Amino acid sequence: MDKGLQSEGKMIDVQQMIERNKKKKSFGERIEKIIPFFLLLCAAVSVLTTVGILFTLLRESIGFFSNVSLVDFYTGTSWSPWSGEYGVAPLIGGTLLITLIATLVAVPLGLMSAIFLSEYANDKVRRVIKPVLEVLAGIPTVVYGYFALTFITPMFQSFIPDLGIFNALSGGFVVGIMIIPMVASLSEDAMNSVPNALREGAYGLGATKLEVVFKVVLPAALSGIIASIVLAISRAIGETMIVTIAAGATPNLTFNPTESIQTMTAFIVQAATGDTTFGSTIYYSLYAVGMTLFVFTLVMNLIAQYISRKFREEY
């Protein structure tokens, strides 16, 4: 009888264990069904945010262009919204000037840094230099702006006596410093992805270190390098605080880097923090300029994606 009771007890334990496993399996199956929807929701947040931003810009820009001609807006050479002049060319010119100066600073320094870290630096040096380089990406842009205003501009004034306190040269130079980590990090990743077999083959043919870098590694990593440069340019186009603080607020259609200029982002800051009446033409001009800036950055990102796909090397 004792054996029968023990056997019956074991059967009950086994049945309870089976029921618990079924419950766990059922719970796990429900979780497996829920997780894909949760991940889809997370992925949709960025898409919906972009759509919302685009909708807002389009809606408010339509209100602006109902009062100001689209042709006059993009072809006019005088920007003074408080006087009724809405030619955005000076803002576009100032943005492009800052971007050009920043590109001339960031591309050589960033690319040379990437070459050093990828091809010449040993592990010990790389562990020291790369974190320091990436710290530049974490510095607030307002700090960069006052650095340009209080240090870079006085330094440049010792070489260029006529340089004003607010100028495109200092702003563009510091924007270039800010985007160096983007160029260096992405370019280094592109060069590290080049197989060592290509390097070893070049060395086997008698190539020097420098020849391997410029004739093997850089051509093989060209798509990633160009994409990093295009993304960095896009970042420079959208920079706000540095140019607002260091470059001035003078809508001036000029390509003289020693003069004060105003970029699209700087105008948005100026108008958004000023006495702008809601619903006025000046208020709607914020969105028209923002829409123009959105198109600029969108085009740059599309170019970067196209270059990455077009010139990608697969090994």
Describe this structure in words.
There is one protein chain. A hairpin with a 4-residue loop joins strand 1 and strand 2. The chain has helices spanning 2-65, 70-75, 89-120, 123-135, 141-157, 168-192, 196-204, 209-220, 222-237, 241-246, 264-272, 281-310, and strands at residues 79-80, 85-86. It has a two-stranded antiparallel sheet with strand order 1-2. It contains 12 helices and 2 strands; from the N terminus they run H-H-E-E-H-H-H-H-H-H-H-H-H-H. The mean pLDDT is 82. The radius of gyration is 28 Å and the shape is globular. It has 315 residues and is mostly helical. The protein has 2 domains: 2-65; 75-310, Orthogonal Bundle (MetI-like fold). This is Phosphate transport system permease protein. It comes from Halobacillus trueperi.
Structural class: mainly alpha
Number of separate strands:
2
Strand order of the largest sheet: 1-2
From the alpha carbons, calculate the radius of gyration and give it in angstroms.
28 Å
Count of helix runs: 12
Biggest pleated-sheet summary: 2 strands, antiparallel
What is this structure, in a nutshell?
It is built from 12 helices and 2 strands. It is an all-alpha fold. The chain folds into 2 domains: 64 residues; 236 residues, Orthogonal Bundle (MetI-like fold), CATH 1.10.3720.10.
